[in-house]
Amino acid sequence: MTANWQGNGGLVAATVLGLALLLALPQIVDPVMMIELTSYVIMAILALSLGLIWGYGGILCFGQSAFFGIGAYAYAIAVINFGDSTIPLLLSIVVPGLFAALLGYFLFYARITDVYFGVITLTVTLILYKVMGATSGSQYVIGVAPLGGYNGIPAVPPLNLPGRPDAALSFDGLFYLSGLMLLAVYVGLRLMLKSRFGQVVVAIRENERRAELLGYDARFYKLVTFAIGGAIAGLAGCLFANWGMFISPDVFGLAQSAQVIIWVIVGGTGTLLGPIVGCFAIQWVATKLGAQQLLNANLVLGTILIGFVLLVPKGVVPTVSDALRRLKFRPYVATLVEQRRVP
Amino acid sequence: MIEVKNLHSGYGRIPILHGINFTMKPGEVVGILGHNGMGKTTLLRTLVGQIKTTQGRIEFDGRDVTFASSSERARAGIGYVPQGRDIFPLLSVVENLKMGEIMRGGESAIPEMLGHFPVLKDLLERPGRGLSGGQQQILALARCLAGRPKLILLDEPTEGIQPSIVDLIAEKLGELKVTLGLGIILVEQDIRFIRQLADRVLIIQKGAFVAEISPDQLYDRETVDAHLGI
């Protein structure tokens, strides 16, 4: 497996590094950048969800933002109704997870794969965009939460300590929570991929027919992977609704769907670190480009994507890993070559 | 062990198998011989559920598996080593073996497999794609056996393999047939290998069995010419 060389030592090191960054960044980064960083961290969770189902499950989903948006809306609607955020937080994970399971059931068990799967998931996202956009009238209310059409739901109450709606999370608190969630998702997925379940998921990606002939129901394993990916995207959606204290149908838009795929392509599929790196890098570049007038941001981002697809098709992390591995073995290869030269 | 009655199947609207009938007992090795395009691989793929049965019935261990999925048949105890081996190229040898045994659960079969095929011991961490053809064939066979099947279907296991490995495979399969009562359906072009292993040989022509001969008859040039034209 691609990530095997890292082993458990790598996982511990990654966890320690993640925790250190989480504690250090607020001390060294200015408050405005912290706001940006928090959104990067949240989006990195979304990127990880696609990294799992595409990079490891081999499921090309063009509509990962659907689960992200459902999670955000589930949280916003529930927290406005309940006041306390404990159940809404759980709902923001469970509802998109179940939605992914339902959608996945019909697609996987109908043996819909590859580009058809991508097209259907993208269509679902765009349908959700239209549906939520059409809820602008006062009659579109769930409990006491107005859906607001394209204007969205403003003033989404923040997360609070369980059972204490008065103890709301501060902005710094949201950064720490998002960082911990990113770390927890990363570690959880690494452990999952090392488990027997994870091995089967990877084997199905490698050769679905062969895995079935060994007794594994590929449809079931793909369904579970897809549902886990949906739940993780939902968690990111909940944190995103907290970050902006606002949610609108834009989360289901084409731009949102496309950028998740770009993050994973740039960072590299088949790794968990890749989607995180790709997400941080592209968002940072987008932020910097947005702050200047000289170049069109979309043009530059488009050029970067084309450049990566053509020049670094495996993505940043797998390419760097391969290069490091080659460097590691270079002295050994050089010795062998030298030995062969000796008459 | 397996009973196949009037089996028909094909690719889309193109019928390939036209009423295959045969039965097998545990521990029996049945060789299937025939020219290319006669339906040998189609028969194996139909038996493992990769191609839909259009007519007929497949009963395995007293259970009707005609319309069971590939994974259900594998769990019931039908193993398949296809032509080209189909190992997982990015998984290591040990991960490939684990994939075979995970399906069955219980005690690990890997030590047993390494006992049968010691050549794999030094290759455990090597990715599947880094193995030679012969090593891949041994791995594919070991992975299939790690699932402890009752019946295995082998599609041209000697194709492109050096003679010493062919002999090793024949020896191990012969042993397992006796010790585990393993049933084997063997599709093979190598007559020597079939003679070494099979209890009886079925000749397939145009999607149907046309004759049953003993392996000893394969030494007879006239019989071979009559059935296979080679």
Description:
The complex is a heterodimer of chains A (343) and B (230). Chain A is mostly helical. Chain A has one domain (2-341). In chain A, 73% of the residues lie in helices and 3% in strands. Chain A has 13 helices and four strands. Chain A has helices at residues 7-28, 31-56, 64-82, 86-108, 114-133, 171-194, 196-206, 208-213, 218-244, 254-267, 273-290, 297-311, 316-341, and strands spanning 141-142, 145-146, 160-161, 164-168. Chain A has a two-stranded antiparallel sheet. A two-stranded antiparallel ribbon of chain A has the order 3-4. Residues 1-6 of chain A have low confidence and may be disordered. Chain B is an alpha/beta fold. Chain B folds into two domains: 1-77 and 151-162 and 182-230, 3-Layer(aba) Sandwich (Rossmann fold), CATH 3.40.50.300; 84-148, no CATH class. In chain B, 34% of the residues lie in helices and 27% in strands. Chain B contains eight helices and ten strands. Chain B has helices spanning 40-47, 70-76, 93-102, 110-116, 133-146, 163-179, 191-197, 221-228, and strands spanning 2-11, 14-24, 29-33, 53-60, 63-64, 78-81, 151-155, 183-187, 200-205, 208-213. In chain B, the strands form two sheets. In chain B, strands 6-7-8-3-9-10 form a six-stranded mixed sheet, sandwiched between helices. Chain B has a four-stranded antiparallel sheet with strand order 2-1-4-5, with helices on one face. In chain B, strand 1 and strand 2 (14-24) form a beta hairpin. The mean pLDDT of chain B is 87.
